[in-house]
Every structure is written in C-alpha cells, then in structure tokens.
Amino acid sequence: MRSPRRAAEEPPSCPFDPGDPDDPATVADPYPWYRSLRAQAPVTYVPSHDLWLVSRHGDVVEVLNSPDRFSSRLGMGAVHRLHAPQSVDYRIGAPGVRVLIATDPPEHTRLRRAVIAPFRRSAIVRMVPRIERIAAELVGNLMANAERGTADICRDLAAPLPVLVLAELLGVPTGMRDEFREWASVITDDLDLAGAADTRLGRGYDMFRYFYAEIRRRRTEPSDDLLSVVAGTDAAGLTDHEVMAFCAFLLVAGIETTTNLFTNLVDVLVRRPALRQRLWSTPDLADAVVEEALRFDTSVQGLWRATVAQDRLGGVVLPAGARLLILFGSANRDERAFADPDAFDPQRSPNPHLAFGYGHHRCLGAGLAKVELVAALQALVGATGGLAARGPFVRRNSLVLRGFAAQPVTVWPR
What we know:
Keywords: Heme, Iron, Metal-binding, Monooxygenase, Oxidoreductase. The chain has helices at residues 24-28, 31-40, 57-64, 72-75, 107-115, 121-147, 153-158, 160-170, 177-188, 201-220, 226-231, 240-271, 273-281, 286-296, 328-331, 366-383, and strands at 43-46, 51-54, 70-71, 302-307, 311-313, 316-318, 323-327, 384-389, 394-395, 404-406, 409-413. The chain is α+β, with helices and mostly antiparallel strands.
C-alpha cells in the first residue's frame, strides 16, 4: 500500500498519529482502527505512506461524487508497485493504460457504455439458471470432499464459482478456470502487502498472449459473448494494449472480489451460530444476509483517488496531487450512517453501504456478483444441514482486498 514520497514537497503536518495501516493486527481486523479514525481524524495523513485516509461515510460519498475534484486516473498511481520495473505494465493503474477503475468522466462514461450490455439486468436474469446449476454442482463437490475430511469453502466453492461464471460470460472454455484464477492473482498480488513473486510474471504474460489472440479472433468472428463486446471497444478509442488491460481488469473485478465476498460471508456465519441456525431454518433470508454481508465485511476495503487541485474535505485542507485512500470498509461501519453498525442485521433498512462503490464508479458487475453470492449461499443452505470450521481460516495478507485464502470446513447433508 506504500507509495513513494514526493521528494520536492514538505509533508503536511498532522497532529494525529494514525499508526501503521500495514500492521498485521490491523490487517486481520481493521474495524477498531477504522472506528478510531472516524472518531479522531476522519481525514488524516499517513506520513510513512504519503497517503491521506478518508474514513467517514459522508466524506467517502463526497469523494466518489466529485470526480472533477478527486481523480481515479491520478489516484490509482498510488499503487506504486505497478510502476516497478519488474511489473507487467498492463495491470490496473499502469502508466498510459485506461481501464474503468482508473479513468474519470467523460472518458470513464464512454468506456463504461462500450461494455455495459452483458451486465444489464436483462442479461443477468438470463444467466441465473446456469449460475444456480454451477453453484449446486460445486456444493456437491464440497460435500464429497467433506466426506473425506478435506472440504474447503474457498477452494471448493468461493473460488471456482466466479471463475466458471466469468468463463461462460467471456465465451472461453471452462477448462481454463485454473489459468483464470492464477491470472487474477497475478494482478491482485499488487494490492497485497507481500507483493507479487517474480515467478508469476510469466503467468501474467501468458494471460496477455491468450487475450490478445482471442480478441483478434473475435474481431473477425464475433459472437454474443463478453470478449466480442470487449473486442469492439476500439470504437471507444481503446488501443490494443488497453483492451488487454481491460481483460485483466475483468478477471479481478469478476473473480477476486466475489470470491473474497463469499469467504467473508462464510466467516460471519461460522462466528454467529444464532444467525447460521436462523438462515438454515429460513433459507429465504439468503438475499438479506448477502446484502448485509456486503456492508459488514466487504471485499474491497478501499481504493485510491487524488486531488486535482488544492481542496478541502471534512474540514481538512488537502494539497494538490494528494493521494487518498477512501475506506469503504470504514464507511460501511460509520455510526453516522448506520444504527448499531457493528451488529450483523439482515433486516437493516435502509442499508446505504458502499461495497460496490457509488456514483460514476459503482461496480459494473454489482448485479452479477449479487446473483452469484445468493446462488452460492442458497445452494449451500439447501444441500447441507449446516457447516462448522474444521481448522483455522487463513486471511489473505492485504488491507485493501479483504478475504480468505483458505477456509477448511465440515458440512453434512440435510
């Protein structure tokens, strides 16, 4: 998460010490730290990272609603590892590469319109039966592994489900799901504290070569899949290089975030026996449980922005070019926006969470992600009599992308 200090500038003075965002205890459970930030310094500077943290719901919404003041294009440059010589330069936020998450209107609007068709509600509704079948098959595999004492929610359900769904959406063979998953991890390792291993660079180039060949083929042999839609984005002014970057972005947005959301939801259920019992006895609660899980422990805890000029936010003066990390995870627990925010309440209403962002940058695939999460939860509840942890769950080492890498469980038939 660290970014290089702008050597020519004096760091702003800040009387509040926010501590180290990369501290293992904070990464494991950031919510007490968020509470302290909201109470004492809702917009605060972290000198060691040359980064401003924005933690209150209202301030985060203001940033998201003001792309003319707080730029995604400039802000994603805070992910400094993207610019390291050994990094693959088509990753999110790389210099000279435009993807949805790192552009501002009107450019962002033009790119979004070019690819929105497969994510419209009507298109997603048509996919629901297939998604439900995939989820049911994966739960069957999970139960078979449970009989052998090897079931893992992340490996058996949360990870493969979005891979298979995205493979179908893109129109590529489902047999490539392992490659898809590994390619997605190449990109998201940039947001993990440990960073990507050099040995993964070859896999990143494999991804580049695959998408390049497929996009070229779709331009002469188009079909009704998402890759054909992406192949046509040259009309929106994307270069071939940027089309490759957009494909990489789809892997992260379509796979990693959904996987992490479901593993966070399972952790909530394991830790709350009363909620788990209530859900298993009333499966119709699945939609409401998913919605509250999105707020309670979201997978994307924050993203970057940067000030276009000197600005003021939450009563704090920000210099031009200041890099901001807007904390969705903190905003979703803000006492000013949610009653009893640390309670998990499926009946919460209203629930203005920011799990999928807000405004111009609201997640393009939010509807698809919800369908996948609900389908997976309904399949799990419908086929099993319950679940319990079989061993310690292993969190991924990232503050920004929050989820689990391993979740050994026991499940049993109804």
